[in-house]
Design brief:
Elements: E1 14-18, H1 30-36, H2 46-61, E2 70-75, E3 79-84, H3 87-98
Antiparallel strand pairs: 1-3, 2-3
């Protein structure tokens, strides 16, 4: 089922996060490009992917789980959005992410 029609999702429970709040990685991998060459369908923006992964990891640490409490919504050049089950989950996530340092791990 597409997450856009997930029955648990409340409207207006999206949180947009700045990618540079979470990741300092380059948008591409020099190592992979050197080893395998550039291009290809899976040549994703590594910085965005890392920021989403860092956010999901941090939210898991505070008891919010992907596919249960939130899902990935969309990404742009400088930010990405997550949809949340309800406003309280969204607010917990916002507070946790605001306290996260770029590139930090637990």
């Amino acid at each position: 089922m597409a997450h856009e029609i997930t029955p648990w999702k409340q409207t207006d429970c999206a949180l947009s996060l700045k990618i540079d709040m979470l990741s300092r990685r380059e948008t591409f991998s020099r190592e992979i490009n050197k080893e395998c060459g550039g291009g290809g369908g899976l040549n994703a923006n590594y910085r965005t992917v890392e920021a989403v992964a860092m956010a999901a990891s941090e939210l898991g640490h505070i008891g919010l789980f992907y596919g249960v409490d939130f899902v990935f919504k969309t990404a742009g050049t400088h930010e990405f959005s997550l949809d949340f089950r309800n406003p309280s989950s969204m607010e917990r996530a916002r507070r946790a992410i605001e306290n996260q340092k770029p590139g930090a791990t637990r």
